Amino acid sequence: MNALHERLLMGAAAPDEPVTLAMAGVISLREHRLPVYRAPIVGLNGPEFRRLLRRFFPALDKAQAAAWLPLDSYPAYTPTVGDEFPDLLELLLEHSRFSGEEARWLAHTIATGCMGRNHLWQDLGLLDRGMLSELLGEHFTTLFLRNVGDMKWKKFFYKQLCGKAGIDLCRAPSCGVCSDYRHCFSHEPGQPLLVAADKVWEWRNAHG
Fold it and tell me: What are the residues whose beta carbons fall under 8 Å from the beta carbon of 92, sequence distance 6 or more?
């Protein structure tokens, strides 16, 4: 178990909820991303991030949080030329089913996960692709419904961005006849990068 992930879920209000798991996963996997994206959740300033911790991880020890998440050591995020993060964030916010601060935090969380190098469900610290689809279907319903072919989520998001920009990088006339079909639509194998939710409950019960 990732030590930071363990502390976050021990302090979580709802450690088996997909939103909580995604936030805990992105925070805990920050070292798996390129340096520019290694803030716990990219684009949130210190006060915002501390409010997120209080809301979703209310029992997290503040001293531990300060030691494990030294926010002052992360430079403020500044978009650069060719950086897709702002566009991904805008896409998610456009399709957010809910409004308010918590909805924005979740959009930042998912956009941050997209900056990882694995399948999106893995870079969010989720158990499998199904959990990710459940989360997107509930919180970004209109965007979720656009993915009629069940394209891999990172591929789908970037295809949406290309469409908004009027760019078509696909040479095939349709997905069904594309030689790269399996790269966009095939099964997403792999193991979770972090602990499964049932193990969280076992650990909490064992440690009081």
Answer: 107, 110, 111, 140, 143
